[in-house]
Design goal:
Blueprint lengths: L9 E9 L3 H11 L3 E2 L14 H23 L16 H45 L25 H12 L4 E9 L3 H12 L3 E13 L6 E12 L1 H13 L3 E3 L5 H57 L3 E2 L5 E9 L3 H15 L6 E5 L16 H10 L10 H15 L3 H16 L4 H4 L4 H8 L1 H18 L26 H6 L31 H34 L3 H32 L11 H10 L12 H37 L8 E3 L30 E3 L4 H25 L2 H25 L4 H42 L25 H4 L1
Antiparallel strand pairs: 1-8, 1-9, 2-8, 3-5, 3-6, 4-5, 7-8, 10-11
């Protein structure tokens, strides 16, 4: 837990991995997740690296697994995802897994191909059966006439005299009557009919009827509405045109029997074939399901093993080879505390591979800024994510997250103070905490709920703190709780100036605390519930919450300035304590700390009886900068002299912040020229090296105090010229930002007051506009009306007061930490330590995860 206050100490290590043991060593490091590899082949194309063929092989196996997962999902077979975490397969076992997957894929494709062919045949036979049954209604043959001399159609119930004469003339010319039947999409039938009429010039007769059931389209596999049609035509040329039109509209045409006997026999044959196909399809599906069930038992292990194998080869491609090509060289960032684990992983990898030559490591000196590693757990991770969203901590600087654990939910609760709403939020967070070990909860893909789930402990503290501040405000769903009895005694109101007429004739009465026997003393905890009935309640709460916001804001900012001392001490920049921290804290305390002192002094020095004579703190604070009193009554003896002294201290602090550090560094640079380039605190640059190795200078605040290692031996060193203008400009920006920020940031904390009053007023309006509608009806109808009214009140409370108001308070608390608190000491210019760890792989897999 100690590393939570400051990032861990890191080192750069060089690994020498034997070629035969490199795979196993990297696998062991991936299981531990303690090192971050650096790419030593940045100038080498991805396709020209050593293990590109192994990666292609892994991707091919991933493709097969994706195909199998898709088929398993189509069959609704559950995939058993256990708690097991198989290790990466050894290289000698990879070929066996690949052959097994390829064999399974070929078998699956063959079964699927046969199944699709059977389904297509079954669909064609079904369509043919529908066509024969429906076309019986179209044509009725008369045995006394020629087979094509008299026809009766559903669409054309009778033929006029002229077409009949034309038919007989066609018979004399030797033309034959032909038929084409089939199925067409319902949406195409009208266009199909128009095209037949225009292309064949009336020498065709079309009859059609829609099928009641929807059949599958063989080409697309979707359910479609079909229409059975029968086209009768004269002559071979017209028949060829009709066939071409049917092909253009993608009609499914089938042979049309010439007689009823042929039609009957065809239907019987079709029924027998359909039954046989059904039987074969059922057996094929059973065999397919059996194959998929056997595959589903091992696919979880295969997916994890292939993912780990692919990750290992990606890491090996980042390593370089020595001159003998028998050893891989890798560079890694590793926490100093985990170096024993790193050595053990190398030993375990060498032992598992059976290598006779051990792999080893050694530390490298470097001037590069190490990555930032801050270890967290399930409780602190949510608060650390809030800090990381602003910026990753610079290496070894103070981490704001431990203090955010308390300050963030507390400032949120100051704006969200309602014990009823806080209790609902706490119960919701408790439910998420209790279900954190539920596998379904961990595997959920609902991004909205996952956001809440990741911050469940943050929400829990926000709810608990809101309950506390709600009790302080004595506010529960806009109503006060009378827990200890009021501190006002109204039994004495009939004595003195009050009469019974005053009570019955006025809706509001102002209680005089100076009257004898009326004010009994302060309320034991929080705000007296009598204020909920007072007409000056809002004015009282305005004054109370505004002063409270100023006090909390100044304490919060001062604490941020104090945390900067720990950075100066850790990075051994003691001069920053005298030339930056001391003037900053004096400026803050002399002006705004004194404002807090006046607030507390007024609360303690004036009682209820003398509160009317108390002077205005705001007027006194303004007069403090004007060096005058303007006839105002002083709060205490010697107030004017003390205020003048504090203003002078604050004014003197500004030039110290502005000029102190630049002048000191300028003097130090003059001394370094006199006493040589190795004087402490002066920046050096090594000649003839691509990387810049520099000793820290006292003015280099942006590097977060990243102390580099100089390397071995004595080289030619060149003193970097000191630029006073650059240093002065940097310090001037910092001074102006801090001085103006103290004023604007203090005013920014007034959002605590504004959001708190807004939440209370919105809660009160919601109660009056919704809940009181059902409470004011005192008849039997009111009881029935209360149920939907309470439901509406609960829904509006959750979505408006809890979700929307809670999100608003959360964002304002976030801004107070990022801008007003963290900018006093936190740079956030580092980069995160990203270890090579198999735990970061998405082990709860899906088809989309591996395709």
């Amino acid at each position: 837990m100690g590393t939570f206050f400051r990032s861990e100490e890191m080192c750069l290590a060089q690994l020498f991995l034997q070629s035969g043991a490199a795979y196993e060593c990297v696998s062991e490091m991936g299981e531990m997740g303690i090192v971050e590899f650096r790419d030593l082949n940045q100038n080498v194309n991805v396709f020209q690296r050593k293990y590109v063929n192994e990666i292609k092989k892994s991707e091919e196996m991933e493709r097969i697994l994706g195909y199998l997962l898709g088929e398993i999902k189509k069959t609704d077979i559950p995939v058993p995802e256990g708690e097991v975490n198989p290790v990466a397969p050894l290289p000698k076992h990879v070929l066996a897994i690949q052959e097994q997957l390829q064999k399974l894929e070929m078998e699956m494709k063959e079964i699927t191909k046969n199944q699709e062919k059977l389904k297509r045949n079954l669909l064609e036979l079904t369509q043919y059966t529908y066509m024969l049954r429906i076309t019986q209604k179209f044509v009725h043959r008369n045995a006394e006439f020629e087979p094509y001399s008299h026809l009766h159609y559903e669409e054309f119930p009778s033929l006029e005299k002229e077409p009949l004469m034309e038919q007989r003339s066609m018979l004399r010319l030797g033309a034959k009557l032909g038929f084409i039947s089939g199925l067409i999409h319902r949406v195409k039938i009208e266009a199909f009919e128009r095209m037949l009429w225009r292309a064949c010039k009336g020498y065709t007769i079309l009859s059609y009827s829609e099928i009641d059931e929807t059949l599958e389209d063989p080409d697309t596999g979707e359910k479609t509405s079909w229409v059975v049609f029968l086209v009768s035509f004269w002559g071979e040329q017209i028949g060829q045109k009709v066939k071409k039109i049917c092909d253009c509209y993608h009609c499914h045409t089938y042979p049309y029997p010439g007689s009823n006997e042929e039609r009957r026999q065809t239907i019987e044959e079709l029924n027998n074939r359909i039954q046989d196909l059904h039987t074969v399809l059922i057996r094929t599906e059973d065999y397919l399901r059996l194959v998929l069930c056997n595959a589903s038992e091992s696919i979880y292990t295969w997916v994890i093993q292939v993912k780990k194998m692919k990750a290992i080869y990606h890491i090996l491609n980042m390593c370089s080879f020595d001159v003998t090509n028998k050893c891989l060289i890798a560079e890694v960032w590793c926490p100093v505390a985990d170096l024993p684990l790193l050595r053990r992983s190398l030993e375990d990898g060498s032992r598992k591979s059976g290598s006779t030559v051990p792999s080893f490591m050694n530390r490298l000196p470097t001037s590069e800024t190490p990555p930032t590693l801050i270890r967290t757990n399930k409780f602190t991770s949510g608060f650390q994510n809030i800090v990381n969203a602003y910026g990753i901590a610079s290496y070894r600087e103070v981490n704001p997250a431990p203090y955010t654990v308390i300050t963030f939910p507390f400032l949120f609760a100051v704006m969200f103070g309602d014990c009823g709403h806080g209790l609902i939020m706490s119960l919701f967070a408790v439910w998420m905490v209790l279900s954190e070990n539920n596998p379904n909860r961990r595997q959920s893909r609902n991004e909205f709920m996952n956001v809440f789930f990741e911050g469940r402990y943050l929400i829990l503290l926000m709810g608990l703190f809101s309950v506390y501040t709600g009790l302080i405000y004595n506010d529960c769903f806009s109503k006060s709780l009378n827990l200890f009895g009021s501190g006002w005694n109204v039994s004495a109101m009939f004595t003195g100036t009050w009469t019974k007429g005053d009570i019955t004739g006025h809706h509001y009465l102002s209680l005089d605390p100076v009257a004898n026997g009326v004010f009994l003393g302060p309320y034991p905890f929080g705000i007296d519930p009598i204020w909920n009935l007072a007409n000056n309640r809002l004015s009282f709460l305005n004054s109370y919450k505004m002063k409270m916001s100023v006090i909390l804001g100044i304490i919060h900012m001062t604490f941020g300035v104090v945390l900067g001392v720990f950075n100066h001490l850790h990075f051994k920049k003691k001069i920053n304590i005298y030339l930056i921290f001391v003037p900053e804290i004096l400026f803050m305390v002399s002006l705004f700390g004194y404002l807090v002192f006046m607030i507390f002094f007024k609360w303690l020095a004036y009682s209820a009886e003398t509160s009317k004579d108390a002077p205005s703190i705001l007027i006194h604070f303004i007069n403090m900068f004007l060096f005058q009193n303007n006839g105002e009554q002083p709060l205490y003896t010697g107030q004017v002299a003390l205020q003048v002294f504090l203003v002078i201290v604050a004014v003197i602090s500004v030039p110290v912040m502005l000029l102190g550090k630049p002048l000191y560094l300028y003097w130090q640079s003059k001394g370094s020229r006199t006493f040589g380039p190795y004087r402490k605190g002066y920046q050096m640059v090594r000649r003839g090296s691509e990387e810049e190795l520099s000793l820290l200078t006292d003015y280099d605040m942006e590097d977060g105090g990243n102390r580099g290692h100089m390397g071995d031996g004595h080289r030619d060193w060149e003193a970097k010229e000191f630029d006073f203008g650059d240093v002065f400009m940097h310090q001037a920006i910092h001074t102006i930002e801090y001085c103006l920020g103290c004023i604007s940031n203090t005013a920014s904390y007034l959002r605590l007051w504004a959001l708190s009053l807004a939440h209370a007023q919105l809660s009160e309006v919601l109660w009056q506009m919704v809940m009181q509608v059902g409470l004011h009806v005192d008849t039997k109808v009111g009881v029935l009306l209360l149920v939907p009214v309470f439901g509406l009140f609960a829904i509006l409370t959750i979505f408006i007061l809890l979700v929307m108001e809670g999100l608003s308070a959360f964002l304002h608390a976030l801004r107070l930490h990022w801008v007003e608190f963290q900018n006093k000491f936190y740079l956030g210019t580092g980069y995160k330590f990203t270890p090579f760890s198999f735990k970061l792989l998405h082990l709860n897999f899906d088809k989309d995860d591996i395709v």
